[in-house]
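Usage example:
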Amino acid sequence: MQDPFDQKKSQILKDIYDSEGPDASPKGTIDELCIPIMELINTNKDMVTTSSCSGRVSVFVEGSKGDYQDKNGVKIGAKGDGGHWLFVTHDENEVPNWWIDKSLVFNTSAATREGLRDDTRYILYKFEPLILHVKCRNRETAQKLYTTAMGCGFRESGIGTNNLVGIRISIKLDVPIGLYDASTEKCHMFMAEDYLSVLTKLSLDRFKENRRKLQQLYDAIEHSLKEDSPTKKESKQERANRMMEEGLARRETVRLRKQQEKELKQKLADAAVSN
Amino acid sequence: MQDPFDQKKSQILKDIYDSEGPDASPKGTIDELCIPIMELINTNKDMVTTSSCSGRVSVFVEGSKGDYQDKNGVKIGAKGDGGHWLFVTHDENEVPNWWIDKSLVFNTSAATREGLRDDTRYILYKFEPLILHVKCRNRETAQKLYTTAMGCGFRESGIGTNNLVGIRISIKLDVPIGLYDASTEKCHMFMAEDYLSVLTKLSLDRFKENRRKLQQLYDAIEHSLKEDSPTKKESKQERANRMMEEGLARRETVRLRKQQEKELKQKLADAAVSN
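Running the assembly step on the lines above writes:
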């Protein structure tokens, strides 16, 4: 009978690389930036990656807070009734000018405009950095991975139950940029449009720092794995070759799928126009 | 001989309540809001609180980034050369109008003003929520405390090495509000003054939510401790009485010390004027 950890690991890897789609996340694909570190971790027989996000920018409209008084507190950044994303991306190239075509209203004098009631629905701009969850076979492996991550400055990391290590860092942006008027469905920004360019610049800085930290973590984990078992591991070149081949194959699959989806959407759009 | 954990716990409690000062932190006193939960946790023989912050608002000027090109990345929110706090408080009552008398310049068109170079020094406004570290005697206690915290929505909690549990939640604000011109020593805000009122309102909302979560955590830990040892524990009334007495005594000590410091400062100021 297969060891329970090995069984779980096979299942997770199968789900990741399943023919139905490379990932169960709503986005549908694993962030490309995460693939090398995931593959590195998964080469070790005592670890398996369970979820990851390479970092993202999102703009979120809070849901209705009409019933906040029935609860014991103020709902902050909650989805609730009518909460929705204005924008979300894992690709830094998509960040500049994200606000074009969103019909935003700038320079709203918020404090005077409606007095910022407790049920005001804010629009929140966020940069969230890399987060990685790794299930380990035993406590020793979990502790070692945790220590490696902390040593690279992932200071908000921690071990949960069942030797699941959460690797977290605090390179963030969490900015209230406007308020949502549900009666007109307009987004009123608290500041001038050029502040969104400031946020773009600061987000790109954070994407860059995030990539640097990811690389640092990759190198530290690689070094730590080598220390563990110098003989059992592939050589650097062997691994590089294997990963390149696997990665190319996987990316080709994703590219084909995206192209098919695009063609399907185009067909649906054409059909809608001709009806 | 005393058990190592008990020895460590005695030392930590001694340091906290030492006659030299109730806490080793730069602020000099333990946040009042944290005292009840610290005392609750410390009644349990298998846990001791090692550090805590009940939540705070801070405004920080980044240090000089002159040498950023020598490093591998962009320094973000780093102290560096000349980094300093414009404002910091754990007391929500001090947040409104924190910017008065800081000679801030508003409505700076940042993106056009100097093109946001890589070495631009930003001014960052932050709300940071409750954080609590608890050292546990053994893994079981650590796991149980972790599970309790996660169950209350402290989703960024984790267990570190030596059964140290970090209890963290993500109610945050992390807002670039301006840039610092070192040549003139002026702080240029990216937006109008009324945006700082917006941030005040949002910070007060977060202080409120933070208090609610702290109470929820307190109740859950209390419940969990009762489950552990229904006979060994004090009754709710006994504990309430004891904590009130201890708390009053401690607060009186802190109050007296603050008053003495104030009188001393006044004397020094008077002496400076008369010289």
